[in-house]
Amino acid sequence: MSSEPAAPSSSSTPPLAGEGTAAGAPRMRFRRLKRFAIGAALLAATLTAANFVLPPDFERARQRSTIVLAADGTMLRGFLTPDDKWRLPVTLKDVDPRYVRMLLAYEDRRFNDHAGVDVAAVGRAAWQMVSNLGVVSGASTLTMQVARMLEPIPRSLAGKVLQAARAVQIEMRLGKDEILDIYLTLAPMGGNIEGVRAASLAYFGKEPRHLTLAEAALLVALPQSPERNRPDRFPARAKAARDKVLRILAEKGEITAQDAAEAMEDAVPAQRLAMPFSAPHLAEEARRERAGAGEIVTTLDARIQTAVERLLADQGAALADGGDMAVVVVENATSKVVAYAGSTDFWSETGQIDLARRMRSPGSALKPFIYGIAFDDVVLHPETLIDDKPVSFGSYAPRNFDRGFQGTVTVREALHQSLNVPAVSVLDRIGPVRLAATMRQGGARLSWSGRFAGPSLPMALGGVGVTLEDLTMLYTGIANDGIVRPLRRYADEGPGEPHRIFGPVAAWYLFDVLRGSPLPDGWAMGRGIDRGREVAFKTGTSFGYRDAWTVGVSPRYTVGVWTGRADGSTRPGELGRNAAGPVMLRVFELLPAEPGLSKPPPADALIVANAEQLPPALQRFSPNRMVAGLARAVPPPVIAFPPDGAIVELNAADPALILRADGGAKPLRWVIDGKPLPAGDAYAQTEWQPREEGFVRVTVIDAEGRSASSKIRLKRQM
Q1: Which residues are catalytic?
Q2: Which residue among 253, 410, 549, 572 has the highest number of C-beta atoms inside a 10 angstrom radius?
Q3: Tens-place pLDDT, residues 125-167
Q4: Residues 6+ apart with CB under 8 A from 341
């Protein structure tokens, strides 16, 4: 037996230094930890690089339906996305918190703890698959589902890996609430419905902040299999999917077994509801004006808008002659449009034409502004006597609607009866150009066609085009002391620049006169003017019965109504008083009550019982032109100084301003912004001491009631 040591076995290798010994174990663990750290670092670096090189695409989440809202947030109308989806803007604050809790408990209990991938859930799902030789439960997190909603990812093992990587990227970029917002927006709910808000409106007809337990459970279940479980097509499957959610949540202790059982008794919706469709014309305009905006908040009052649309639908059903209607309601103090209807039926043959913005002849509805300007010039008073007799203005000889004449009447009676000759006579006095300028100053757009190429006397009877929207805006001046502001349609719009079309006294006179306008035939006195509300209104009928108008003013609201045919064809016998008037009064019945009556008269208003109590110059109206072959020997007055449009600098040492007039029958009266100067200053030249800077209107009136005016700007010398 040899004494030499045995050779080492060829099947074994000598241990490396430190291995297999107590001293080498820490080193081995360190090396393994080092390899893990390097691997983790490489993975993190890879994900970080991918996050910048191949970031997730959030474009689909940004492509949401444009929605138009009422002032209180009620959805009026929505529009499909470019890919024809109902994908409404929605965030966590818009959704019932109970739904969110149910969603997390059912889909992703550790949503707030993981970084996109739930490692524990992945391990559980893998073990169950091996143990049961098939898929028992999934491991997809809400973030992973969001990744799949944002971009198409194949349903395969490779797809799952990509989905998980995308989920990690999303978590690196967004907070948990932002991820939930995307899920709430994109979750498939069957057909072209995506997101919780669209589904809640389509299936339940309500916003998702008001979901019941059963409704919330159905919306949790639908994204699992949106087409298979669509309630409008497969209600039995939808109920089974919903009940499964309720049963599992009860088992997990998220809801009580009793609540789950009661919710299971609720039926699922068997049909899909139409999306909200209110104020379609204004909504279309809003989408054009604010292109790219996701949510557009208007000034409309949802309750009033709905009530007005129902009223017009009822009224439109009775129009057998192809007629249509439009209504605009404005809150006077704010100039906010609170209701807007461009037609009675948007889906009719011509219903998509916005008739509230079409240029139409207003008929006699402009007469109040003619008289308002004359009131402002102090050449008329409601009790002034005026002639309604045959008269010619060159080749133009206006006649009344009934072809008759009333003789001498008061201005109040002339407006109540809508007499044509007095209105044309007053317009001849103030000038058609001035009427047009006043309307434009108030923000109205005007148009002329045919033989009326510009401002002319036929304007008094409707010889000009104006929209219902603009006419309603002008009428707000009657309630606002003669001041008109641009109409506001959007909640984020501030008050527009004010424009004065006449003074407070003139505005008060108009309201006082027009609140006595005769009611439509068969309309009981007081109906529509209830609850303490006073309504001043004027009607209008265009030539050939093409357009019928009524605009009413209360202290709080102005309501404009137009009726006619979209093509402008005639509707024989349709008058503003009986076609549009009742609708205007019924709209007022829909509006909130108004405490108190109209404003008291301004201090400068002349309150008299008849013309005899007026100053001589105001007792009877004197027209400008020759009447019955008589001519005046004295020319009408003209303001020599200050001329119209002048900027007058005032001397601090001597602030008096010289007023001088030429012509006119003596004595003359001077009026500053509707306020007469003392009677002692009734001369061709007088002095006036202005109190402050700014724009003023200077008017001179002669003994025959003829007048001239100039608008000037006063400025202190520096």
Answers
A1: 107, 364
A2: 549
A3: 444 444 544 443 456 899 999 999 998 877 777 777 888 888 8
A4: 279, 281, 305, 308, 309, 312, 325, 326, 327, 328, 356
